[in-house]
Amino acid sequence: MVRDQDGGREIKATAAWEHSASYRQFLTDLKLRIRAAQTRAAFAVSRELVSLYWSIGRDILSRQQAEGWGAKIIDRLAHDLQNEFPGTEGFSPRNLKYMRSLAEAWPEPEIVPQLVALLPWGHQRVLLDRIKDRPTREW
Known about the structure:
Blueprint: E1 2-3, E2 10-11, H1 21-67, H2 72-84, H3 93-105, H4 111-114, H5 121-130, H6 134-138
Antiparallel strand pairs: 1-2
């Protein structure tokens, strides 16, 4: 900051390059690259989360089938996971049931990265609630 000629208010000193078209274009390009990287990172996190949720659902489903665990296991798992990861969302009984439903709807592991993990978790839940027919869900 610099004082104006009268010694009164402070004004911001700017370098000549700050007003150049070259700098403005450089800044615009950087902002676009940063936003694109943020978007790619968000998609990667979403894919990873859906894959994790599918695997948790698969494991719940297989344990229930193999060991005869009933529906109460989901409430207990939710409680224990919420205690272990306080402040982390996603481990409610309802969400664990969605995970189980996801694994039941898409039992093949190879389809998860190719089809299932391409949609965010919220969209997966809507599909599970509203569309029971697998070919329609795949479309």
